């Protein structure tokens, strides 16, 4: 199993959409995400692929103008003993942000998310019913 990284608009979009297209169009996945899945040029995608190139999950993030990383989507069709799960996909986004020196990764996700809590994300207060903003502050270098 491998996780392949794509950047929307950098020449491999046909591979990206070929790998995640069935999830993007799946109404149950859209309901889990809370909306339709979209992407803009520059968005980063991590795609879980089996050794037979079957997609098992994905995550997508956007670098924001304020220097933070917005984890837009993460989904795994299966949680397995090999660890290829939502947690591994989220970690790819966190590692990306750390490598870029970003101070924060955030997402809007289900307020009862055990995986985000486990990874150190903190839910922000919200009046929304099901989704809240989750933030993970990253340690930066001392100035």
Structure description:
The protein is of the alpha+beta class. The model has no long low-confidence stretch (mean pLDDT 89). It has a 7-stranded mixed beta sheet with strand order 1-2-3-4-5-7-6, with helices on both faces. It has one domain: Aminopeptidase. Helix 3 links the parallel strand 4 and strand 5. The radius of gyration is 15 Å and the shape is globular. The chain contains 4 helices and 7 strands, in the order E-H-H-E-E-E-H-E-H-E-E. 27% of the residues are buried.
Q: Can you identify the CATH superfamily? A: Gcn5-related N-acetyltransferase (GNAT)
Strand tally: 7
CATH fold group: Aminopeptidase
How many structurally independent domains?
1
Class per helix and strand makeup: alpha+beta
SSE pattern: EHHEEEHEHEE
Question: What integer is the average pLDDT?
Answer: 89
Q: Give the class-level CATH name.
A: Alpha Beta
H/I helix tally? 4
Poorly predicted runs are none
Q: Could you tell me the radius of gyration in angstroms? A: 15 Å
Under the CATH scheme, which architecture would be assigned? 3-Layer(aba) Sandwich
Shape: globular
